[in-house]
Amino acid sequence: MNQYDFDIVLKKYLSGQHSPEEEKLINDYLQDNSMIDTAVFEAEKDMIGKRIKKKLYANTIGTPLLIRLRPWFMASAASVLIILGCWFFISKTEYSNVIFNSGIILNPGVVEIKNTSNKSQTIPLEDGSVVTLKKNSSISFPEHFGKKNRLVYLHGEAFFRIKRNPAKPFIVSTGNLQTKVLGTSFTVKSYDESATVEVQVKSGRVSVYEVAEKKSVNSNGVILTPNQKIIFDKKSKKMELSIVEKPMIIVPLNETEHRFTFLEIPVKTVFSELEKSYGIDIVLENDVMDACLFTGDLNGLPLFDQLDLICKSVNVTYERRGTALFVQGTGCGTE
Questions:
Q1: If you placed Cys at 131, which of 52, 86, 123, 218 could pair as Cys (CB 3.0 to 4.6 Å)?
Q2: Is 259 left (phi over 0), alpha (psi -120 to 50) or beta?
Q3: Does residue 102 sit in the same domain as residue 92?
């Protein structure tokens, strides 16, 4: 092939209109001329580098750390040494099931990661935060966070463990709903085909609010604390606040008085211990339990199983209302 014909193929490659055979020709040329800075490639280096970068994201399996591209990568994109180096780096990664898809990289420096594996994948971010991306989910974020915030876009489900930085809040955007934190751990579930968005908090405080088309003084939003969740209906824009299905202990048992083992303890005290341990309000609606005592070992049981045992022993019931539990009944003194 003469220089004229090669120039035509090169232009087609740079414009994305090349055939597989023509792409192979360019790649073969790069391999055979890896250390040569010819005039043919000097002006097109940057564009070729970008195409190689997208190729890597589109067709390789690798680590999220690869997204932090250095300037030398773009400057030397025409070198086969860089290409082979990247492939070697990719093949050794521990995140071998995280797929990079360049088809959704709309701007330079913006990356989307898709998890097409059958298990959750761990993605470390440059600020020290860690994202556990569930299967069939994707997340996109800038190569480098801005000065004012750390903004990411989620499609699907992910658990976030955010490094605290009061000067730069972390924001998860899911359509019209945003979750804003300074440093905490929480889960966001927002699949495109789902009618709802769910956010639940494991630790810290999370602000969840709707992003309206027009700015308003009054914003539709709530503050979530541990063991709380919100379900946002995409169509009605309504928010339902409630307790998570499996509440976790937020205060270590060694900091509680009885450590969930009770011997003839007033039932009011037992409920108070649970309230403190889980950070969930337990409201006693009447005084029929004032004289009731409870004996039992509640260690190792989920919260709602603990409540079932207590209520059965003192002849009361409980129900969930929003983010609180309400206890009522005839009490231990009445059959």
A1: 123
A2: left
A3: no
Question: What is the rounded distance in angstroms from the CA atom of residue 167 to the CA atom of residue 182?
Answer: 8
Phi, psi of 199 (to 5 degrees): -130, 130
Dihedral in degrees, nearest 10, Cα atoms 194, 114, 160, 305: 50
Angle at 269 between CA 266 and CA 271, to 5 degrees: 115
Distance, in Å, from the CA atom of 200 to the CA atom of 225, rounded to the nearest integer, reads: 9
- In this structure, are 115 and 90 located in the same domain? no
Is residue 100 within 8 Å of 57, Cβ to Cβ? yes
Q: Which 3 state secondary structure label does DSSP give 95?
A: coil
Question: Is 169 inside any structural domain?
Answer: yes
- b/e per residue, 139-154, with b = 16+ CB within 10 A? bbbeeebeeeebbbbb
| 236-290: pLDDT as tens digits | 999 999 999 999 999 876 666 668 899 999 999 999 999 999 999 999 998 888 8
Burial (0-12, 13-18, 19+ Cβ within 10 Å), 137 = buried
Give the Å distances, CA to CA, from 291 to 258, 275, 294, 333.
19, 20, 10, 8
Residue 257 and residue 224 share a domain: no
d(CA 117, CA 30): 33
pLDDT tens sequence across 224-246: 999 999 999 999 999 999 999 99
The two beta strands, 324-329 and 281-284, are parallel
Q: In this structure, are 308 and 211 located in the same domain?
A: no
pTM for the full predicted model: 0.66
Residue at which a domain ends, from 225, 245, 265? 245
Q: Is 98 exposed, middle or buried (0-12, 13-18, 19+ CB in 10 A)?
A: buried
Query: Is 334 inside any structural domain?
Result: no
Q: Can you read off the two tokens belonging to residue 255? A: 């900091």
* Domain identity same for 114 and 241: yes
Question: Final residue of a domain: which of 245, 274, 306?
Answer: 245
* Domain housing 117: 97-245
